[in-house]
Amino acid sequence: xxxxxxxxxxxxxxxxxxxxxxxxxxxxxxxxxxxxxxxxxxxxxxxxxxxxxxxxxxxxxxxxxxxxxxxxxxxxxxxxxxxxxxxxxxxxxxxxxxxxxxxxxxxxxxxxxxxx
Length: 116
Known about the structure:
This protein has about 120 residues and is an alpha+beta fold.
């Protein structure tokens, strides 16, 4: 239960962080069978699908090391579903997959644009 609370807090911090960079969050926790995207946002012409990672101890692994190839596939699959169900052409739309890493009690934020 504490893990879910920490995850929700990290996602709220990430949403605020994006807003401070003029990126509008469109949807939070978009889920389908087989995948989830933490935040879906718009950055000018880009649809941005954001994975939020929170760790209390950054020494465990870097933020990018925590994302597996399987997880990347699930996020892409879920993003494709979102675009399709909202009549957005994935072939002509600008799409980006970002990662926001939040670590430690100091809530340091690492933002990796176009991470995968």
